[in-house]
Amino acid sequence: MTVAPHQAGPPEAELLQPLLHDLTVTVCAPCSALSGHDGQIRPRGVQGVFVGDRRVLSQAILRINAVEPSPIAHTPDGASGAAFVSLARTLGDPSVDPTVRIERVRRVTAAGMTEEIRVVSAASVPVRASLTIDLACDLAPMDAVRSGRAGEPAPARGAGDGLAWSTAGVEVRVTAEGASVDVGASRLTWTLDLPPRGHARHQWTLQVTTTAIAVAPAPGPVEWSRPRLVADDRRLVRLLERSLDDLSAMRLVEPGQPEDTFLGAGVPWFLTLFGRDSLWAAHMLLPLGVDLARGTLRVLARRQGRRVDPASGEAPGKIMHELRYESLFGLSADSAPVVYYGTIDATLLWIDLLHEAWRWGLAEAEVAALLPHLQAALGWLADHADPDGDGFLEYIDDSRGLANQGWKDSADAVRFRDGRRARPPIALCEVQGYAYQAAIAGAELLDAFGLPDGARWREYAAALAQRFRERFWVDGPDGPYPALALDGDKRPVDALASNIGHLLGTGLLNAEESALVARHLASPAMAGGYGLRTMSADSGGYNPLSYHCGTVWPHDTAIVVARLARAGHDAAAAVLAEGLLSAAEAFGYQLPELYGGDDRTAWARPVPYPAACHPQAWSAAASVAILQAAVGVYPDVPQGTVHLRPMQGAPLGAINLHGLRIAGTEVDVSVTHDGRASISGLPASLRVVVPAPTPVIPTQPVGPSEAAPTRDR
User: Fold this and answer.
1) Which residues pair with 205 in a beta bridge?
2) pLDDT confidence of 509, banded at 50, 70, 90?
3) CB neighbourhood size of 311 (10 A)
4) Contact at 8 Å (CB) between 427 and 434?
5) Sheet strands (E) in 394-457
6) Contact 588, 24 (CB under 8 A)
7) Which residues of 349-379 are buried (b: 16+ CB within 10 A; e: fewer)?
8) HSE (CB half, 13 Å, CA atoms) of 681?
9) What is the pTM (predicted TM-score) of this model?
10) How far apart (Å, rounded) are the C-alpha atoms in residues 713 and 400?
11) 575 — phi, psi (to 5°)?
12) Are 108 and 28 in contact (CB under 8 A)?
């Protein structure tokens, strides 16, 4: 891997990332289309049609008699379709009521897009007009579009009954039956001649052929079950339905590897393989089946690091962060695609997903085939994750990649309580929890399959937990909590942030420490918005529209809800789940990548984050995580058990779920209004275990001696 020369361009002050919040998005991976709510694709911002990392259409503007019609409605049709309604107000009867309407029906496929244009007249007189669509194609790479560097339209050429554009490895063609084609203007024209109360229907198609792509559409049916949900809270039903539609449209494979499906991270910027994002999404979908997890594990195992390369962040055993066809962070490769490894947590999450997929019923032969990659991943944890040898996992960017390499990867994400930025290398709190969990999970897998070193990794985990208690806990105005991180001087970075919620359930915290964390997470400063704020509103760096310092991320909230519920902190979990469901309702049940962290008492609906991707895989998968937390199904197929512990008090009301998948078998789960749960349809090899109620741990502020032994408070 080499570092490419820095490309000159406009001054950075003139470049602004395009906004996304007010666009209509349709997707059938690896293709996506973004337009205004009027259906027009305008040559500005991120509007256009993309296949992989290339914009293959930058304009599609419809006019009737040279005038844009007046938009009045738009509606989604699943993840891959949309319909737009507009009016031709100067045509038809001279009446205050409109009599000529245009219906524009869009359908995105994996290799392009089709639009059907219907002109419908209710007029008592004939309607004669010209219908035109002006097209343009700039063939701009995704990284240029994202940075605000729009491309100039490429010249079109005639191609039979349509238009064509091309660049290296990419051929774009538009066909339109019955239209006249003006190649110089890149315009399609149909002549309308409607009788009274007549209608016309025309269609044009965009087709893209490309070899310049790192990912390919997933063949065949989806890898997970489509459960049937009946619930008192209809928001949960609608959220699940919309989310599963979006997830189905984001399935991808690597070219030549059609058997291993994974989820692209998000539209438009991230519709490719991401280590962390794809792993979390597959993990949250485990209640619907293990096939997606298997594909995600396998495709990432093929890209597992083999050598030390500071430019790309590669190291032996490390799981990658991001896959692109062309350059990324100034990296280039002898042959495409480019792989970037700048992540501190993906390797640990890979281990955890393997372990959890095994518990949900991934076949032993499938697990066994991945054990060499497990051993390599543990080797990375032992040899490369702690470069300064202080016993914690930390990172520092040695190239021009990501300054921060946890899930909060913006440059200003790691801050002290007073708002100051932390200096690297950074040791994030949740990464230590992931490492503890990975060590224990790795030990269990090694033992179960007769491999050595299980005891070594249990000892590692125990020592890590002790070091964490000694160094990470800090005192705040409302009592002790784990610091967000340690900075380059090993000082606790004492902002209260959502990262601490990821520690729950990892095993790194004891019951008393978990209760303290739960109390902070449910506080108004953290939970006062529509979900869990990424940073406390009481912190000096808080901004409700900061990417990682005050916004709400649905996946983050859902992960914490699931971990709170499993640990028995149901009241805190319910507060956050309610916020997330309220946000889902406001966003039409398509949860975006993130949204504003403003207080719910100030705004009747969440404020959009203007550059948020939608759909986003782990935001959509959050619906399944919330549902699993509510019904409380936790299988351990190798041990022959299924623990059943729904959220106490049934805060989401009665739930009947048909089609959960455990060990390849679809099962039914019900929770009554008073919180009693039952499960049916389990394989005979599995027995249900109903745990005793989780004891309530006092959560009042405690002194240092009552919490965890610490230094440098």
Assistant:
1) 114, 175
2) very high
3) 18
4) no
5) 427-428
6) no
7) bbbbbbbbbbbbbbeeebbeebbebbbbbbb
8) 14
9) 0.94
10) 34
11) -60, -45
12) yes
